[in-house]
Amino acid sequence: MEISVKSTERERAGMLYGTASFVLWGLLPIYWKLLQAVPSIEVLAHRIFWSFIVMAIVVVVTKGWGEIVSSAGDKRKLLLMFFCGVLISGNWYVYIMAVNTDQVIAASIGYFINPLVVVLLGVIVLKETLNRWQLTAIILAAIGVLIVSLQYGKIPWIALILAGSFALYGLIKKIIQIDPITGLTLETFFVMPVALVYILKLEAGGGGAMGGSPFLISIILIGTGVITSAPLLLYAKGIGNTTFSMIGFLQYIAPSMKLFLGVIVFKEYFSFYHFLSFSFIWAGLAIFTLANLGVLKAPYSVAVGHEEQDEAPRGA
User: Fold this and answer.
1) Which residues contact 262 (CB under 8 A, 6 or more apart)?
2) Entry pTM
3) What is the pLDDT of residues 275-288, one digit of tens each?
């Protein structure tokens, strides 16, 4: 009984960490709009470099060098962290570019698709199971995503790249089971040298934003380290304390906020089909959350490649 209570508390903590990370991510378009005059690739370089600086400070403050050294001796972990660094850097670039070219809604579609990819990976790769309520929630959300994708009118490349890269990033983080601070420090360390060389080259040639823009722009660029590291640390804590499937559905918080910002704040087009899509997605999110909390109970679970079970397992 005590183990069950601790397990439930851990899952709830994971949900809270995950929710906090996605709320912060949902607000990020406001920050990136402040850097609209700076080329997206340069913003990315600063985001990577200053994120590493922030994480290095965190490691020093928390005295986490031991974990860094320990992980550095594991070649498998290092390789996976390198892939994480590449995946998240690509994801950051596409997202910054989308926001600063007035495609916030297109980006939000990607983060609507992403949770479905996450849940699918959770079931197929991690063998997580879903009860009937949770499966119903996935179907409703999938219908919502299909509606908004079809309404978009063309292959949503931005959305697909964002969804795929972040889903794979999350899967690696789930598999590797590394301390959040250590993981993010190593991820940014691997890609930081390239970012730093790019920044120095721009500044040396007189075309860098730090030397050729108002002082406020420099401060905002430095701040990208904090606004990047905080939600990623919360996300890593969340993904380590609850199931991959639950994290997948919590991700609907961020794109919903982004779409709201795109329509209300940035005045991008919002149609009846967007409204219809949101209705399906949020209905799915509500059902999935209630099922995970045990409010909605199902007699058995389902999983790809598995026989049905008599009782639903913990979480999902």
Assistant:
1) 29, 104, 105, 108, 268, 270
2) 0.76
3) 888 788 778 877 87
